[in-house]
Amino acid sequence: MGRTTHYSSIDRLLASYRGLAHCAPDQIRCPLYIYAGSDDQRITKPLLEKQEEIDAQGITLRIFDHLDHAQEISEINVVYPSAEIFLRKTSQE
After folding, report:
1. Which domain of life is it from (predicted)?
2. What is the rounded distance in angstroms from the CA atom of residue 8 to the CA atom of residue 25?
3. Are 61 and 35 in contact (CB under 8 A)?
4. What secondary structure letter does DSSP report for 29?
5. What is the pLDDT of residue 50?
6. What is the rounded distance in angstroms from the CA atom of residue 38 to the CA atom of residue 20?
7. Burial (0-12, 13-18, 19+ Cβ within 10 Å), 24
8. pLDDT band with cut points at 50, 70 and 90 for residue 70
9. How far apart are CA 74 and CA 67, in angstroms?
């Protein structure tokens, strides 16, 4: 009997975030806010390599100093204010 693998929606979400790090910025068609911690080099490095393209597309990229992968999620007091500004700005456009 074959083995079936079940992928949860969180697995799909994580896969999409990983793919986004390697996506060509000119493929993005909506306002986008990308953030990462400077200590999360697995994500930050490819984003910074595409910084010029990201800026040219009007994508907001924010790198938070000294945050690792877990802190990107847990340090709400650091990350949220910047995300809120982006959301308020884009909701008025």
Report:
1. Bacteria
2. 27
3. yes
4. -
5. 87
6. 17
7. exposed
8. very high
9. 10
pLDDT at 55 over 80: yes
pTM above 0.85, yes or no: no
Residue 35 CA to residue 78 CA, distance in Å, equals 11
Higher per-residue pLDDT: 68 or 30: 68
Tokens at 66, concatenated: 């000294």
Instruction: Identify whether the C-beta of residue 71 lies closer than 8 Å to the C-beta of residue 52.
Output: no
Residue 9's alpha-carbon distances to 12, 13, 59, 60, in angstroms, are: 5, 6, 25, 26
Residue 26: partners with Cβ closer than 8 Å, 6 or more residues away? 53, 57
What does the pLDDT read at residue 80? 96
| Cα distance between residue 90 and residue 30, in whole Å | 10
Residue 23, pLDDT > 80, answer no
